[in-house]
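Sat 14:20. Reprocessing the chain from the morning session after the first attempt stalled halfway. Input below, unchanged.
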Amino acid sequence: MQEKYDVNSGIPENGVADGSQVLLYTEQVNVDLEEVYFKSVGKAVDFNGIQSISSVSADYDPSYQQLRFHNVDVVRNGKTINRLRLEDIQTARRERNSENFIYDGTITAFMNIPDVRTGDITVFSYSIKGFNPIQKNKFSTSFVLSSPKYLDRISAHIFSTRKLNFKIINSDVSTSENTRKGITHYSWAQEKVPAIKMDENIPFWFIQNATVFVSEYEAWNDVIAWGEKLFTFNEPYSKELIAIADDIMAKHPSEGGRITAALKFVQNEIRYLALHSGIGGYQPNSPNKVVEQRFGDCKDKSVLFAALLHKMGIEAYPTLVNTRLAHVLSTMMPSSKVFDHCIVKVIDKEGTNLWYDPTLVNQGGSFNDIFIPDYQFGLVLDPRLNYLDTISNFQNNMVEKFSTFKIVEIGKGADLEIRSHYHDGEADYMRSILKNNSKDIIDKELLSVATHNYGRLASKAPFTVVDDSLKNEIVVLEQYKLDSIWDKSMENPNSVNLTIIPFNLTSALSMPTQLDRSTPYALSYPMVRKHHFELKLPERILARPEEFTINSDFFYYNYNSTYDISSNTLNISYYYKNQSDHVPASAFNTFYDEMVKLDKNIGYMISTNTNKGWDNANSSYSIGSLFLFGSVVFVIIALLIIAAIVFINRKASKKSVE
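Finished this time. Tokens:
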């Protein structure tokens, strides 16, 4: 159907983005004809907008779709100029995810519209015919009715003889329904739609646009039935697959050992490669074929892993998840198109639900505590179920560092030992880094980071690694000789300062810069960071025990320090844990205030007077907040400093102790 637009539409009060104005965007679907029609009308308000309205592109899968351009026009001073020429249309297979070994076979047809000028209106439309046959005539889709750009008019239409279900979020737009000759026309339209305010650090799962969800599925068990048929293969297992399962059973008598061995085989021996053209985007290859070709995507790996477990008498089911919409997947309408990944649910002989991602590599841990990302919900392809299952995740993803300084002389250098413990998913990640990089490269990177954090230094010995794969803990040990860790005081020319910053925490934290927000604020989850410092000092200091704690709904933070006067040893410990994956917009101000408190209570300073004739150096120092806001790893984030005073005069030090 033809949609009208206003060529004389005024520019909105807040102006337009990139110098262009969207006068109309419409998407129209004919379910029975399996055809989708798109039309876009844009106006170049100034010369900056010419670029955005003068190019046309359309993506389609040639294995089951056909693309047709209907018109490409330029409207200038009320006159329509036809710019559609077949020879100007080019095609390319771009494979935007090839760096991740994902090839979907999509073809992009694109065209540059010639001679577009300021004030011109470009109008183009095209249609794509063909639905993926793997959907088995079950229709589902979604329409977005808002944008980061102002929209003069946007609409969506569906024509269907079949019953469809709808869900609308972030909008009070109404659904229009008209039936004629057995065909129902559903439509949604909005005019003068304000641009969406894009806040910083929005969670992936948060849907901010006005969106209409459409699905022919009535319930999740219908989707399970669809998926179970796709993932079920009636052919007998091949000799090679049986041999692999028999070998695992012979080497591993326990159920847990067999689960772990089968997982490691699929993860590390079957390379990841996704060929998603046509029905391959939904239907896996048979486990026999995956074993034979020794590569596969998430579906292929999950089917093979489940097959190996079945051969060993262990209950397992491929499970569909969404890596981005995990948090809100349970609120979505039942649909086969809301998933982008496949994992496996295993039920051991004790009836415990276990979750595994066969696409991950180099994982450690025992069978019942192997790291699984925070997918939250999954559609288990078990015909006995009729709901989305909850995916349990008990890992902390902890990195714990121990930094030991041996300081021989005040104002000079020190020996530094850094011992880093990586747990859970962080251990898996570090294991991959160690396996995919040479020792020289890693050594240089560690040296670079240590130099950035502590100043000029030299390595005393090559780094060492201890990998306890059963506990899934990796320990990296570094040893350095520091030239100097003391800085001259800006307040007192006779003083030098030693500043201690828990880089293991600050490299993972960032302070929000946008305080007026209407959307949730994303937090890394799960995440735990600990940093312990031991400073063996040559002189006695005045330092009282300190402790500070923040226990909020969103994070837990603890700092404490102690000083052993008998050994001149100062111990400082920091602990941080995110307790949620996001901060609701309604609680953001509280979260920000708590982060400010954290900012004011992180870091430590030792200050000493270099003038031996000055016996009384009791004073406190604050260097203010240096919290660098952002998410750049290994950037110093700091800090309002807590001061401890060193007496360089030995007589004064002894007198104070006695």
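The chain is about 20% helix and 35% strand.
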